[in-house]
Protein 1
Amino acid sequence: MDCAVIPINRSDDSYDSAVSSIVRTYEIFHPDTFYIIYAPFNKPVLKKLEGLFNSMQKYVKVELVDIGRYEEAEGETNLWRFIEFVKGLTKECKKVYLVPTAGASVVAASLGMLYMTDMNRYSIVSYIFSFGPWKAYYYPFTPRATETVLVEPTPPFNTVHDQIDRLTQLDDYFKGVISSQQNIYMRDMYELVYHLNKSVGEFTGVEVAIGEGDKKQKATLLMEDIDKGQGNAEELRKKLEKILEGVDEDAKNVVNEVLNLSGLYEIYVLEEDGSKKKVEDVVTDYSSVVIDTNLLYYGIHSREIKGLTIPYCVEFEMESKVFTAGSSRRSTKRGFERGRFFDVLYSIYDALARRSRIIPSCRYYCDHAIPRIDPILLDGSLVLTSDKKAYNVWANSPLGKYATVRLTRVEPKEVKKERYERTFSLLTVGVILKETLNAEVRPLTK
């Protein structure tokens, strides 16, 4: 029989890396037995994985092994002792896949050493994740193409058709995960990407269907639309404007809002000398990056920023938008619902807040609230806003003495370059249209 050994004892991203490693291994290599080696401090992660294990055990054996029993009394892992333990654990296995991705570095080193002892029997498997916009997601809710697998030596892989069949075996579990997701943005993204991963071929765009019966209208928003012309997504913009014609009297501005929120455009930080740098290149110099509400409108959720910090005032502004936009909701089947747009925006904020730091501020508008945050909490931080008036006031106030205040702007003629980033943005556009136009949206492949 073939076996997989997957340790779960990282201190960061434990759940996401564990699910991705387990499910990708399940569909790519089809092992008969999974040995899940876990650290005691990761028992809460194991608890969250119970449903997945129950679904898998209809088809494979899953054995949970506590690594704590095989550590030295002083608490340090003995590499060779651990290697001998894994050898004993897998002695009945003909082929063994060693997957260190969700493991701590010392365990990963042990598995690498074990692989070197018999490179015919063992394969070392590593999954390389495309983080950035996909930081908050895990497989199968990230596109298969973003989860690169490296294997030494390279064994025969299951075909994509076989991988899809294996993933389909877990349908009940993952459809349950999707339906139980309370955040509307995350739920819709999960659903679209899961559908994408059950399709053969490369992601090419989304199909949007609006209306019913004979009046149903369809449009395709394609990845190639982003590159047509000057490579500034002008073709995509035109298609969106056509979809919104007759739906909203301010169609062009609505399209701007949709594309900005999707994270498709580059966000630049303006330096004091007049130069500009991509936000990703600036934030790495700071342990805390505090954002104003307007950064949400420009797709800051699609960036991976360590130390991202959200003041209470952002939540206040988001809630105010949701509550005041209720009067603009439309009951018609066809019509851009402003209230629903702010529902999506709020759910994006909520998802971002769950993986960010939260900092106390008065619950009022951020242009007033941020300068009044306790200086100790902001000392040495980078504070970002897209509001020029707020920037001018903040930079010349005491706030500018103990924090770095910078103005940001979006460049509509400069779109993100990486395919996995564009995929995220186009799927986000699909989610926004689904929620605001009551549209049917599905991913396209070729």
Protein 2
Amino acid sequence: MIRNSPAAHAIRLLGDRWSFLVIRDAFLGRTRFDDFVHTTGAPRSTLTKRLNALTERGVLARQPYQAHPPRDDYVLTPMGEDLYDFAVSVWHWEITHGPKTAGTTVPDRLRHRLCGQAFDPVTVCLDCGAPVLPREVAYRVEAEQIADADAALNDGSPQRRSRPPGPGQVPGDPSMLQAAELIGDQWTPLLVSALLLGIRRYDEFQKELKAATNILADRLRLLVEAGVVRRIAYQDHPVRYEYRLTRKGRDLYPVIMALHRWGERWLVPDAAVGLHHHCTDTPLATATVCSYCRHPLKRGDVTFKVSVPVR
């Protein structure tokens, strides 16, 4: 079910450290290859592949700014701009739970032009207006529409998680590196999705995600070390553990919801896996709104200041 969800399709496209950091930079106004190299720390060849992939899938577009030699800006398309809910949800999670890193360009506060107030992003149900909580959302599966997603998640997309250097060793902009470590991966967001659905045990994760044992063990360890998940023994002989989200982990729910919503709009509009809120029997429709005035957030209506100039 999770592997067939719109969020899983979005994760296939964006679930890579370097792609995640490119999207971060694009929303900070960066557009040029050399700036991406500097701020992400990505090898030039790797960055070229990620920019090409994001361009081919319609998230970015090239805009020439120099003819001799030819040079292009990489700018967000309407499809890319629609990731704003995802970007602002990641920002809120990182500001709430991430380390305070010198040299970051991520603002401490966002301000909404429509009401003039500093705000937090809130994901709400468009039918009832209430904040969307995991326990109030049900997944529904149209069995006849489900296709086997195993091949899709093993199509050559990056799956091996490389360990990046620490924040003090990363070139350029160290903003959102914790989020990049957790979300910029093919498997970790799927594990968080499973945990949000109430799946807690190792064999249940294997059955639902069909992840290799070494990948599953590595990602669970990463989530425990990051404080997103806690491990609790439920059996003594032999010792068996289940995994439960901490508050830090539960606060990733708006990020997963934003990926689901974006994947539903742009990648799989006829998805077999749908969400339903407890207030209605119709498919869940959500928006990310200002916590002060409750208007939906748009990139052009949000202002911020950064402590380090954007290159």
